[in-house]
Design a protein that fits this description.
Mean pLDDT: 82
Structural class: alpha+beta
Distance between the termini: 21 Å
CATH class of the largest domain: Alpha Beta
Low-confidence stretches: 1-6, 13-34, 115-122, 362-368
Number of helices: 8
Strand content: 25-35%
Strand order of the largest sheet: 1-15-14-16-12-13
Shape: rod-shaped
Number of strands: 16
Order of helices and strands: HHEHEEEEHEEEHEEEEEHEEHEH
CATH topology of the largest domain: Outer membrane lipoprotein wza fold like
Length: 386
């Protein structure tokens, strides 16, 4: 058997020149290499060149964190809460649409039944006449025989009993009335939206609160931090995050008839981009999230490609309270030990964008890697043929 060996490839001066030109062209195109985003220098350059939006970069330091914290606290204090809707109300009175059960008891001569005993002797025993379903009309009134029309809306059952007995005086001997609410429509609240069992719920004399009504509806379908409570009372309504309402607190309103509660899913999240371990949209899941927690949830700066001195947070922020919001970029330098303390006090807001910049040395390193990939086949072929 004869084994033929191929001669080692020889590169002419022309091929070597072409390879060199290719390398130069690749180096020239270094700026267009794949990247997860701009470097810190490019972001800074963007604030100077073609900055129609007028955004600027602000370094996160102690005075800035204190100023933002004070401004956020003032904004929260100025924001109306559910406690501003508190009012006195009664849930033990009759209203339009209620169904009443009315019983009238008489002694001796009866308006509603026979009063004669055996042999025409007066029977002194009490007699009863029951009206099991008396519906209160939309004007809040009922009509009974021998009594006439009674305005019962806004009155308790005890007060209605007195009204009936007063109307029968002089017509019946010692009349007594017993009134109860068979179907309660007026003293109800409505719970709808993202709850497990929406519906209308009757209020009792225990004076249920907002969280009680949500519990009667089976509770929220989503986490409290992802749920907004929209509360409607009369012609006013307010929204507040369910996770901020504490049982028995001022925002846990005592319910009054006609209140409407709607639970709406509205999760808060921030976006992590750039040279990070996890590029994604991340939900808060808890009440508040600091910048340190947000960076940790995103996986932190990637060791091989990130610039830890250039962690940027993009958001719209007013320059002063009451001003129109403007785009602003906050920068955190994680190479400074103090930044780790500051980032724990810097609160992330809903829809903030956190970007970890690429290190400036990434692109030359990628260029070297590409050149190695291009020439490694030739190097391997020469090694085999030797």
């Amino acid at each position: 058997m004869r084994i033929s060996v191929l001669p080692a490839p020889r590169f002419s001066h022309r091929s070597r020149a072409l390879a060199a030109l290719s390398s130069l062209s690749l180096l020239a195109g270094c700026a267009s290499l794949p990247s997860s985003g701009p470097t810190a220098a490019e972001i800074q350059r963007g604030t100077r060149d073609q900055n129609e939006m007028g955004f600027r970069i602000v370094d996160i330091d102690g005075p800035l964190v204190n100023a933002i914290g004070a401004r956020d606290a003032a904004a929260d204090a100025a924001q109306p809460t559910l406690s501003s809707l508190a009012r006195a109300g009664r849930n033990d009175v009759v209203g339009p649409g209620d169904t009443l059960s009315i019983g009238i008891y008489e002694v001796g001569v009866s308006l509603f039944g026979s009063s004669g005993g055996a042999g025409g002797v007066m029977d002194p025993s009490a007699r009863a006449q029951t009206f099991p379903e008396v519906v209160v009309d939309r004007n809040g009134a009922v009509k009974l025989p021998y009594v006439g029309r009674l305005e019962v809306a806004g009155h308790t059952t005890s007060e209605i009993q007195g009204m009936i007995e007063h109307g029968l005086r002089g017509k019946s001997q010692s009349p007594q009335a017993l009134v109860s609410i068979k179907t309660n429509i007026a003293s109800t609240v409505y719970v709808a939206g993202d709850v497990r069992s929406p519906g209308r719920f009757t209020l009792s004399l225990q004076r249920e609160r907002l969280l009680d009504a949500i519990a009667m509806a089976g509770g929220a379908s989503n986490s409290a931090e992802d749920t907004i409570v929209r509360f409607n009372r009369a012609d006013r309504w307010l929204e507040e995050r369910l996770g901020r309402i504490r049982a028995g607190a001022a925002d846990d309103l005592v319910l009054t008839p006609g209140d409407r509660v709607e639970l709406i899913k509205r999760p808060r999240s921030f976006i992590a981009l750039g040279a990070t371990g996890k590029v994604s949209q991340i939900a808060f899941e808890t009440g508040d999230v600091s910048l340190a927690e947000a960076v940790a949830r995103s996986g932190g700066p990637a060791d091989s490609v990130a610039d830890p001195s250039a962690v940027f947070l993009f958001r719209y922020d007013p320059a002063k309270p009451g001003d129109q919001e403007k785009p602003i970029i906050y920068r955190l330098n994680m190479l400074q030990p103090a930044s780790y303390f500051l980032s724990q006090r810097f609160a992330v807001r809903d829809k903030d964008v956190i970007y970890i910049a690429n290190a400036g040395a990434n692109r030359p390193a990628k260029m070297v890697s590409i050149i190695n990939q291009l020439f490694s086949p030739f190097v391997a072929a020469r090694a085999i043929t030797r």
